[in-house]
Amino acid sequence: MEDDLDDVADGKRAWVPLVREFYTPFRARVDEKTKELKRSDFTTRPSDELCSLGHPMMIRLGRYGEFLACSMYPEHKETRELPGAGAGAGGSKPAGEGAEDGTGEPAAPETCPKCGGTEGGVLVARRGRFGPFMGCSRYPECDYIKKDGPPPPPPLPFEAICPTCNTGHLVTRRARRTGSLFWGCSRYPTCRFTTSHEPIGARHDVDSGPVGRNGEAGLCLVCGAAIDLTGIDHPIGRSLAGGEANPAALARPASSRPRRTTRAPAGGSRSTATRKAATARSAGARRAE
Structural domain boundaries of the chain? Predict the structure, then answer.
């Protein structure tokens, strides 16, 4: 074949008869095997492993690689990572399996926080479209996914009324992208108040607004008045005097991300409103004539 292709490149042989000579028997062979073989013939094969109920497990080929699955699927949906396959293989295995706990024995799997106490689910290592993750072994009955990252921030040791709705109270949250702390209303998403100024437990004496920390000073989260915290070591529950109202101090800094601008394609169609306006002008010009 390589010599024939060289002849085609040198202009010594026509490429169409060559391709037809190869493709005709090849296509016939493909059609023959398509009728003889099933998809499971090359995506499933037996293994020596048993599932937790004692059923034989099969090695299956999935979207993210090979994994072990119970032969009784879909009645029993247990899956497991291939032994020695590592975290990159498809399927799942109990969290901690293969790791020792200091006694030479494999560490016990971690109980699923959502259904472990009632249904016995445990966390298993899985691999999805975004990479490996930890999820419940009872999926899809239980959809718990363990989210790695810093622990949740501790709650405020006092109650600060939301300055926007005056119904909810401020709670500490952590930003998903940056991990930084901020404070928002407990009634989210009904109330979407948020601030980067940490509440300190004091109130502004003018409007009873919660006081947030603004560097070394304080800031009323209702009117933006600056509040001097000099000499105040225990502000929780105190009513503090402040300066004049300054709403500009509560304004959020402008985003550093560039704005998206949508440009009409060159020669593209105009909007419906533009077309209607042009049609009206044209009709008016004809009537004037």
Answer: 39-86, 92-148, 170-250
